[in-house]
Amino acid sequence: MNASTLVERERRESDAFRLLERTLVRRRVAGVDARLRVELAALAALILGFLFWQVRIPLDSLERRTGVATVAEVEFAGLAALAIGGGGIAFARHTVRLRRGPGGPAWLALPVTPRALGRHLAWGSRATAWLALVPAAAWVLAGVQLVPAWWLVLLFAIFVWMLLEAARLGCWLAVRDAVRRAEPRSGLDDLSPVLVAARRVRTSAPLPAAHWRRQPAWRALLVKDLVVTRRPSPARQRAIAPIALLVSSAVAWALPIAPALAHALAFALGLLTAATLAEWIIAVAGTDPFPVLRGLPLGVASVWGARLLWAVLGSASLLVVQALCARALHPMALQVLLVWLGAASLAIGALGANYAVTLYPRVEHAQRMLALSLGLAIAASLMIPLVGWVLVFTALLHSARRLPGWSRQEAF
Predict the structure, then answer these.
(1) pLDDT value of residue 349
(2) CB under 8 Å to 185, separation ≥6 — which residues?
(3) CA spacing 20 to 30 A to 265: which of 49, 199, 257, 407?
(4) In angstroms, rounded to a whole number, what is the distance separating the alpha carbons of residues 366 and 359?
(5) Rounded CA gap, 141 and 148, in Å?
(6) What stretches in the chain show pLDDT beneath 70?
């Protein structure tokens, strides 16, 4: 194959992948309804405002003490750190994708060069690095009237360039790490052994014969969730964190620290337990094959009720552990702890159950929505105490309104 033919082939592959990427972007944007777009925009605006307020005051004080040049240096250092963080996000995302096997068609069966395929797979992972734009925008806006405007424009342009390069470097390092871990195969390029290893089916011991018995649908779903969690699956990976955090929340009371600090630590670990339990609920719900589940005579009450019951059981387990381990507290203080922790953990678990059902089978989208909702609640609570809980219950009510549309969902 001569040089001109190779150039023409690479051009066609590049055009085809660019068309594919534009189509994917349009479909993903179209998959988010108008109301959710408004909510995401409001979430980004609130996060931006919170970060702006937290950064503006220290920068203003710094400018009064040391001058404009020092503020510009701090702005550059912060943007550089955010760019490195964006590259780290791209690295982590690409590493996970290469280990699990990237979604989509069987890439190795397509008549494309490994170089073009590698660029496309990295494109999907680099997109996550753009999450750094929101804190970067807040960081730059915090310097308005403290640093000349053209300096801020230049700094932001440099940040965008650093973010792009950091994301490319992160994906390159992820590929190098995956190649080092993959089994070497003679006659193949670097990427092919990685994809072959990622797509390899793991064999396991033969499963016992199925036993059919009559039971309510919600109970059958609970049993199925336990079986799936015991086997190698994303649900089992997610089940480790809530168990470990539940134990940690109990151990916090035995640490040689002040009772007030143990109280705060146990409460924080309890909230993290509820959050990771909500992630597990979403993961275990996503293991249900969409055509199979939708082909069964199941209503939204059975599906949602089974997911909600896990949230209730998790909240009850957390309260029992805290009631047994926090006996050193005054009875009134213990009662307040149990009421707040029980309501908060149940709300977080129910929010995970709502997203697991209303966004099924888009597991990653549901996980992101849960993380965004809880992140917004934390940011709001830092600005105004207790406002975060209002936002959590608002998200809970809004997601509950979407439950009746479960029967009209389609697989994406």
Answers:
(1) 92
(2) 192, 193, 196
(3) 49
(4) 6
(5) 12
(6) 1-3, 31-33, 35-36, 39, 43, 100-105, 108, 183-190, 196-210, 212, 379-380, 382-385, 407-412
Q: Given this model, what pLDDT does residue 201 score?
A: 46
Contacts of 310 (CB under 8 A, 6+ apart): 222, 225, 277, 280, 281, 284, 349, 353
What count of residues does the chain have? 412
CA distance 103 to 364: 12
8 A C-beta contact, residue 351 and residue 366: no
DSSP letter, residue 130: G
* Cα–Cα separations (whole angstroms), residue 6 to 19, 112, 114, 119: 20, 12, 13, 17
State the Cα–Cα distance between residues 45 and 37, nearest whole angstrom. Answer: 12
Closest CA to 285 of 322, 233, 242: 233
Check residue 144 and report its DSSP letter: B
Give the CA radius of gyration of the chain.
25
Distance CA 107, CA 101 (A): 10
> Do the Cβ atoms of 98 and 174 come closer than 8 Å?
yes
Q: CA-CA distance, 349 to 292, in Å (whole number)?
A: 25
Among 252, 245, 231, 249, CA closest to 276: 245
The answer to whether residues 337 and 329 touch, using CB atoms and an 8 Å cutoff, is yes
Task: Decide: 235 and 287 in contact? Cβ < 8 Å.
Answer: yes
| DSSP class of 105 | S
The whole-angstrom separation of Cα 168 and Cα 86 is 10
Coil, helix or strand for 147? strand
d(CA 112, CA 192): 12
- Alpha-carbon gap, residue 287 to 5, rounded angstroms: 45
